[in-house]
Amino acid sequence: MAEITREEVAHLARLAHIEMNDEELTRMAGELAVIVDAVKSVSEAAGDDVPATSHPLPLRNVLRQDVVGHTLNQEQALSGAPDAEDGRFKVPAILDEG
């Protein structure tokens, strides 16, 4: 088991500006030792013949062809608008320019 001391945990806590009492320092030293051991065992499992991966399953983008379909002309696009002016949608002003 990796040896993480209370003093090392206290030093890390000071660097992170985290206040910890004696009980928390002791408990955290044990928990960090377990975490370090777990990371070490995972590192040992992957040999040189195992490629590094960021995802367990291969990923690929699913793309469709960019084909122009049915489009609306200006008159059709504005036909359902509540208000239009000069061939554009007309909306209420939201900024006071006065």
Explain how this protein is built.
The protein is mainly alpha-helical and 98 residues long. 40% of the residues lie in helices and 4% in strands. The chain is built from 3 helices and 2 strands; from the N terminus they run H-H-H-E-E. It has helices spanning 6-15, 22-45, 74-78; strands at 84-85, 88-89. The chain has a two-stranded antiparallel sheet with strand order 1-2. The longest helix has 24 residues, at 22-45. The protein is elongated, with a radius of gyration of 31 Å. The model has no long low-confidence stretch (mean pLDDT 88).
Helix content: 25-40%
Helical/strand content category? mainly alpha
| Gross morphology | elongated
**Overall pLDDT metric:** 88
The largest sheet is: 2 strands, antiparallel
**Strand arrangement across the biggest beta sheet:** 1-2
Counted beta strands: 2
Q: What is the strand content? A: under 5%
Number of helices: 3
Structural topology:
Blueprint: H1 6-15, H2 22-45, H3 74-78, E1 84-85, E2 88-89
Helix pairs in contact: 1-2
